[in-house]
Design a protein that fits this description.
It is built from six helices and eight strands, in the order βββββαααβββααα. With 243 residues, the chain is of the alpha+beta class. The strands form two sheets. The chain has a five-stranded mixed β-barrel with strand order 1-2-3-5-4. Bound molecules: zinc ion. Zinc ion binds next to loops.
């Protein structure tokens, strides 16, 4: 059984039996892996309370060839990010990032994806209660882009015209982009500031405020293009902070 040691981010954990835990990890070197941490729930285990979602560490694993579940033999904590649990918007944002990676990460090493998740979790950790929903939206759009699903926000889907700043547009969720106001279109109405806000978020920058149905657009975009059946309670929470 080959032994590997790699940096990793914990995406999800669940109990296994009375004393063990199963971890879903995004590892730096080998992409997503699942590992059984035997005895991690024993009170005196060194790993008790350490192996939680959003934690970053250096994990040592016995890889079992052709198996989905490997065995954890060591874990050195790098960053706990426990404070993410102290605020609902921060926690919801981090949960959406982890969920998207769980669903969509390619099976091999992907440095941009790893860095995007790591930086996104850190940005949420540092966000204030007031900025957390905007930081979450910007980081989720960034991750959506890294996963290969970018919305088209510069040119009209129908006539190809560039929609300049100062003009509004409509966002067509099914097509994943905007149409200018000269072209007949349905979808979400965006006034000039709403379009600017959406462009700012999709460039992974934090706008001064959310204007327009930003979270609703993000949620619909993810459902339509990325993960139709995603368990999206965290996104619902963020949507409720829209305004
Ligand atoms: Zn047009």
């Amino acid at each position: 059984m080959p032994i590997v040691t790699t940096s990793c981010l914990v995406l999800q954990t669940y109990r296994f039996g009375d004393t063990s835990k199963i971890l879903r990890l995004l590892t730096r070197d080998h992409g997503p892996l699942s590992a059984l941490a035997r005895g991690a729930l024993r009170p005196r285990s060194r790993m008790s309370g350490v192996l939680e979602p959003f934690v970053e560490g250096v994990v040592t694993l016995y890889l079992k060839p052709n198996r989905d579940l490997h065995t954890l033999s060591g874990f050195e904590l790098v960053r706990s990010r426990q404070a993410l649990g102290a605020d609902m918007a921060r926690f919801a944002g981090a949960s959406v990032l982890a969920e998207l990676v769980l669903r969509l990460a390619p099976s091999e090493r992907d440095d941009p994806l790893y860095e995007t998740l790591r930086e996104g979790l850190d940005a949420l950790l540092e966000a204030s209660v007031e900025t957390a929903p905007r930081v979450a939206a910007a980081r989720i759009w960034k991750l959506v882009g890294v996963l290969g699903f970018e919305p088209s926000l510069e040119h009209c889907l129908s006539c190809g015209r560039h929609v300049p700043p100062g003009e509004g547009a409509r966002f067509d969720t099914m097509e994943g982009g905007i149409r200018c106001l000269r072209c007949p279109a349905g979808g979400h109405s965006l006034d000039p500031s709403g379009l600017q806000t959406l462009r700012t978020l999709s460039e992974n920058r934090v706008p001064p405020q959310l204007s327009g149905p930003q979270m609703l657009i993000l949620k619909e975009f993810i459902r339509v293009h990325i993960a139709e059946d995603i368990r999206i309670r965290s996104l619902d929470f963020l949507t409720a902070t829209d305004g």
